[in-house]
Amino acid sequence: MDHEERNRTILLFRKLSEGDEKALTAIYDSFSSSIARYLLRLDGMDTYLLDVVKAELLETLWNKREYFTGQDAPISLMMGMVHKIALYRLREREKHTVSIATVIYKESNLHADDLLLSKEYEEELKKAIALLPPQEQRIFNYKYVEQLSNDEIASLLNISRQTVKNTSSRASQKIKEWLGLASVLTIIEIIKSL
């Protein structure tokens, strides 16, 4: 996504936050192919999931449009919404028992849009991690990036297992709040798939 396109996207989300219905349509039209590719990787995409996600996403974007006021990464927030809606619908249909950690990108061949989106996710995640206090940063990285167990982290840092558990949970929650509705595990899995 070049600078001009990024500015256009941010402007559309700003207009959406101000109540512009045309901006809502323009946003969906701009990202519908990326959303469809994402859903294809989740479910092999039948039209049900695409139709349901589109309808719910448009409704959610409209109802939560104030969330986009001043957002630097509105695409991440929107794709987090897509992810949550899709997982909810898949679970609701009892078609799948979906694990957030294994659901992302069944295929390894990524399109250019996917690469750009994952780079945006990665940048936002790095910014969010940098906002954490040093101890939370260390524990978060050990647990989610290096995938060490709580026991391994406790031994490494000379702290209790419960402290590791509490600190990683607190750090994860902060990052989820800072990134909007996007799942931390989703972002990590997208980055790892590259």
Break the fold down into its secondary structure elements and pairings.
Layout: H1 3-17, H2 21-43, H3 47-63, H4 74-92, H5 100-103, H6 112-131, H7 134-145, H8 150-157, H9 161-178, H10 184-192
Helix pairs in contact: 1-2, 2-3, 2-4, 3-4, 6-10, 7-9, 8-9
In short:
The chain is mainly alpha-helical.
Kindly give the count of domains. 2
The largest sheet is: none
Helices and strands: which structural class?
Answer: mainly alpha
CATH architecture of the largest domain: Orthogonal Bundle
Low-confidence stretches: 95-115
CATH topology of the largest domain: Rna Polymerase Sigma Factor, Chain: A
Oligomer: single chain
Description:
This protein has helices at 3-17, 21-43, 47-63, 74-92, 100-103, 112-131, 134-145, 150-157, 161-178, 184-192. 75% of the residues lie in helices and 0% in strands. It folds into two domains: 1-98, Orthogonal Bundle (Rna Polymerase Sigma Factor, Chain: A); 106-194, Arc Repressor Mutant, subunit A. The chain is mainly α.
Key phrases:
single chain; 194 residues; mainly alpha; Rna Polymerase Sigma Factor, Chain: A; Arc Repressor Mutant, subunit A; 10 helices; globular
